[in-house]
Each structure stands twice: as structure tokens, then as C-alpha cells.
Amino acid sequence: MSSASSDELLYELQKSKNLLEKHLRQTVCFLAYPSGSFNDQVIAAAKRCGYSAALTTEPGLCRPGDNPFKLKRIRISRSQDLGSLNFA
Fold it and tell me: What's the angle, vertex CA 87, arms to CA 81 and CA 88, rounded to 5?
């Protein structure tokens, strides 16, 4: 996404959001950046399309005050015991 033009970004983000909302019959508020690819231009386009937040592929925990368009994730494998996770 980070290599797309502004027009391409708006088209792709709005088109996919509209299709999901049509099929799900509810508002789509969150975006997961494809392949984790994003930059300030992608964030601006996501905001213009009505997204409230977006997930990156950056590992880590989210904290109060973090940028909602740069949310981190914790990778959990299929074989991982959820009791082994430490969220501290």
C-alpha cells in the first residue's frame, strides 16, 4: 500500500470497505494493513475513508495514548498455550 498513489489508496480502501459493509451488513471501522505496509499517506487515506483504527504487523502491546492507526499485535501460533502469554 505504501507505494500506491493517493488516488489508488483512496479507491482501494473505500472500495474494499464498501464491499465488506455490503456483505456484512454492518459498519467496518478497522483496517489491517496488507502485509503490514503503511506510511503517513496510507494512514491519511484510511482516516479519509472512515476507518477508526488500523493494525500493523509490528509486534508488541498497545498502550493508552498509542496512535490508533499504528496498533501493534502479539503473534500467537496455533500450538501455543494461551496460558503461556504474558501481557505485563
Answer: 135
Q: Rounded to whole angstroms, how far apart are CA atoms 60 and 75?
A: 9
HEC string for 30-83: EEECHHHCCCHHHHHHHHHCCCCEEEEEEECCCCCCCCCCCEEECCCCCCCCHH
Contact (Cβ atoms closer than 8 angstroms) between residue 47 and residue 69: yes
Strand ranges across the sheet with 71-73: 30-32, 53-59, 71-73
Residue in this structure with the C-alpha cell 451488513, named with its chain if needed = 25
Partners of 59 in the β-ladder: 73
Each residue of 35-48: pLDDT tens digit?
Answer: 888 999 999 999 99
Is the pTM for the entire model greater than 0.70? yes
